[in-house]
Amino acid sequence: MAMAVNRLRNTLLGVLIMIATLALGWVVLVVWPGAFPPHSLDEQGKAVKKQEQSAAEVSTAAAKRTQPTRADQAEAALVDKITKPVWGEAKNGIQLGISGISPNSTFRTGERLRFALHLKNSSDKEVHVVNHWPKPLGKVIAPVIENAAGERVEYPAQPNVRGGHYKLQYSLKPGQTTVIGLQGILTIGKEGEEFPGRLPHERCWCSLAPGKYRIVGSFLLTPIAPATGNRRGKPVNLTSRKVAITVEVRRQM
Question: Which fold has domain 87-248?
Answer without folding.
Answer: Immunoglobulin-like (2.60.40)
